[in-house]
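[Target chain]
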Amino acid sequence: MLIILKHGAGPKEIETVVAEIQRVGYRPHVSEGENTTLIGAIGKGPTPELLEHFRALPEVADVIPISKPYKLASLEVSPKPTVLTWNSGATGGGEVMVAAGPCGVESREQTLSAARYVKRYGAQMLRGGAFKPRTSPYSYQGMGEEGLRILAEARAQTELPVVTEVMSPEQVERVASYADVLQIGARNAQNFALLQEVGQQQKAAVMLKRGMSMTLEEFLMSAEYVLAQGNMRVILVERGIRTFERATRFTLDVAAVPVLKSWTHLPVWIDPSHPAGKRDWVSALALAGLAAGADGIIVETHPEPEKALSDAAQQLHEAEFAALMERIKALLPALGRRLTRPMEVA
């Protein structure tokens, strides 16, 4: 249920209502606007008696049942867009971030080279897979913890936050000690034990990719598993779904961006690399996603894509990545948004 406090409610009134929400066994989520304070009470569907109980509190103006099955992810609980920040910039609320780097960490030289040039051309986050879930057990599986150490070195040299994939609940604590953002890949988008584990840790944000056969409501319910454990720093990524079309690797659901942004306060990103499957089409899909309203993109680029040990065909050359960044910088002002800048440190 959504509890709307009376105009002028201050910290004391908020504290009173939050304490009552906790007393009846619900979890509070406070959203303070300029004129109105909303408190979501998250738990099992409230009874009519419970709704009336909260309506009777002197601090409360009204109580509205939350209609969506995803509660914490819904705009009903948080009507303002969530903005996530790092020292390198922010995403959400008009701020757009680019995460870029190789599909997989293959060597120190390869990763540091990519980190340096993606920063030079304007990316604000470094991506790279230390653990690689592959369709074939015989394909390159990543460097594991050595790859995490290389990513941490790249972060130290460039001051870019790092996003990397985590594949099992047992890995979460270890990966979170190196990374700033934990990526949940498409194949793990409904691994509920993993989602709960990344939700319980507070060191890193979570980047959740849409499963290749998930509806948007199922996607948000997966996000709800993370949010319900207390980690509210979640990015949703549309990365292409499986359809009958075989010309591309997957079908990028561009419509998912405006739909999700009308349903949730969470930042919505696009992964143009996986649906394209071919580097020639990556830039067009990235720009389409941004034009549709995406708050960021995560894109693959490699110093020598032809030698890449995974996803070689879809990784951009350095010059291609530089050209994409120039097109993004030209596009965003026309959309009333901007490529985010480093945050000022007090």
